[in-house]
Amino acid sequence: MDKFLDNTLNFLATKSSSLIAPYKDSNILLQIILLLVLLVGTFFLNRLIGRITKKNYYRIRKSQAGSLIHDSIYPVYKKLLIALIFSFTAEVFKFYNIELPIIEQLYIILYLWVGIKVVSRMIKNNLFKKVIIYSAWIIIILNILNLYSDTAILLDTIAVTISGLRISIYSIIRSIVYFGVIFKVASILMTFISQRIEQSEDLNPTIKVLMTKAIYVLVFVFATILFINILGIDLGSLALFTSALGVGIGFGLQKIVANLISGVTLLLDNSLKPGDIIEVKDQFGTVKVMGSRYTSIVTIEGKEHLVPNEYFISNEVVNWSHSNKLVRHSVDVGVSYNSDIHQVMQILEESSKKVERILKRPKAVIQLVEFGDSSVNFKIQFWINDPQKGILNVKSDLLIHVWDAFKANNIEIPFPQRDIHIKPK
Question: What pLDDT, on the 0 to 100 scale, is given for residue 331?
């Protein structure tokens, strides 16, 4: 026990002396005075920059580049400005062979602080953000105290070997950090590329979805290979794992794989694409997103249905806009036998022309269908080119115009009537 304490005290004494050594021969008083002067100067400079930014806020936000710089730099510009002034001052004094180790250490810490802040603002997941921030600060503090290499060696000694693969606490921590950084960068890259593809006007929706999916797969595969190479893992040691994964895909993940392949098939044969108006499962709506597992359909009521891609391959789906968006519908109307059928047909034609969404070409067709039990029945057949806006509202508008016209011309809409004869006993 005494030996352990002696070794610990010697270690702490050695590290303390190495930590103090750079500052021992420097002019500490000069550096403190410089720090106070620089902090006062940056305080007034920050206020000036804040006023200028506030005055030109709307002008800055109008520019895309200005808006991006404002959102990324403005929250940390005070610390960044202090770091810039400190580093410039240190370089000026170094030119005259005057070392300022305290100021140099401070501006390095400030630059790292700004970097951590900027990176953390890009991360939406709070847990992952905290892990990145705390991990970065632990590494910075250990480096400042000259303890990073010793800590890394200590953590690396705590290890186990599984099937020839050595796993230590240090390698686990390093893997987590590398995993988070690599796949976060990959996520940002995929989001940026997909947005650029979506904004392109030269590509049709099918090509956009296919390109986005292909890029997602390529970036993910590249990030995975990069992650494995950085860790120095032998791919041969993963043979057992990949075999088990293949069995898992064959059994437990077969539905997911089926939906993925179905989604790609739908895009390749162009039978379904974002923006199509379809009818499926007695639901009418617009295809919003075609994901790797499901297709999102938004109905006119605003409900979003997530339908597995496999369903579209194995079931009948009505695509109202597969080749074009022209759709024909019909409305049945009955009138009394006392009505003038020629006048009725003229009224029905004029009523169809009053509905804004009913196309003039091809024009609506009015047909006498049959002489029914209680009425003479007509059919109005009309065309629309915007079925995504709904069908019932068009029929409703048409019937309202027909009702008003019939009322104005005293045309009766009959209803079934029955005569009851009671025989006396």
Answer: 92
The DSSP bridge partners found for residue 298 are 286, 304
* φ, ψ of residue 326 in degrees (nearest 5): -75, 125
Q: Do domains 257-319 and 327-408 have the same CATH topology?
A: no
Helix axes 169-199, 205-231, angle to 10 degrees: 160
Q: Residue 334's beta-bridge partner residues?
A: 377
Q: What is the pLDDT of residues 339-377, one digit of tens each?
A: 999 999 999 999 999 999 899 888 899 999 999 888 899
Q: What is the pLDDT of residues 33-61, one digit of tens each?
A: 877 888 888 888 877 877 877 777 677 66
From CA 114, how far away is CA 73, in angstroms rounded? Answer: 9
Q: Where are the domains of the chain?
A: 17-146, 165-252, 257-319, 327-408
The listed CATH number (3.40.50.300, 3.40.50.2300, 2.30.30.60, 3.30.70.3400) that belongs to domain 257-319: 2.30.30.60
Residues 6+ apart with CB under 8 A from 266: 272, 290, 295, 309, 312, 313
For residue 307, which phi and psi values (nearest 5 degrees)? -105, 125
Tell the CATH topology of 327-408: Alpha-Beta Plaits (3.30.70)
Give the Cα separation of 407 and 166 in Å (integer): 89
Cα 395 from chain centre: 38
Closest CA to 151 of 140, 164, 162: 140
